[in-house]
């Protein structure tokens, strides 16, 4: 606000005050210039006191932030799906209990299946089609909205689709129970 008043005063004065010396900028002005990157930041004499993980990663060349780049999240999702696909070949009993979402799994208290089933693909064709779609769609989502939104969209879509599937299972089971009751 103070800088805006100073700028208005200088513009209102016009060319008549061009020879007048400008006032010395305040320390807040220097801080703004440092934040905008137009002024080198003063070096701190004790770097140990200001050490953070972020400063370490920035000094090592990781400037992408906490979520990494969009490709990091995209390839992480692709890798997780492929890894879960291969786990189906190792222990199908465990995978069926913990990586498929059903009404029975929820009645047994396995709520984590809402999330784990988002990564579960049993057949190779299913995996290939979904990963192809994720790759081409995910690149655009990550480029336009960022890696965090890509992960949020993937997880929200998976969890909401599993909720709809379980709701449909419950509806169909209720319909079957009524059908059996009325015919008996």
Structure write-up:
With 184 residues, the protein is mainly alpha-helical. The chain folds into two domains: 1-42, no CATH class; 70-183, Rhomboid-like fold. It contains nine helices and no strands. Mean pLDDT is 75; it is low at 56-63. This is Peptidase S54 rhomboid domain-containing protein. Residues 109-172 form the Peptidase S54 rhomboid domain. It is a multi-pass membrane protein.
Structure summarized in a few sentences:
This protein is mostly helical.
Number of helices: 9
CATH architecture of the largest domain: Up-down Bundle
What is the share of helical residues?
55-70%
Element string (H = helix, E = strand): HHHHHHHHH
Oligomerization category of the chains in this entry: single chain
User: How large a portion of the residues is in β-strands, by DSSP E?
Assistant: under 5%
Subcellular location: Membrane
Keywords: Hydrolase, Membrane, Signal, Transmembrane, Transmembrane helix
Family: Belongs to the peptidase S54 family.
GO cellular component, one term: membrane
Write the layout of secondary structure elements.
Layout: H1 2-13, H2 27-36, H3 53-59, H4 70-90, H5 92-98, H6 103-107, H7 113-116, H8 124-145, H9 147-183
Helix pairs in contact: 4-5, 4-8, 4-9, 8-9
Please describe the structure with a list of short key phrases separated by commas or semicolons.
single chain, 184 residues, mainly alpha, Rhomboid-like fold, 2 domains, 9 helices, 68% helix
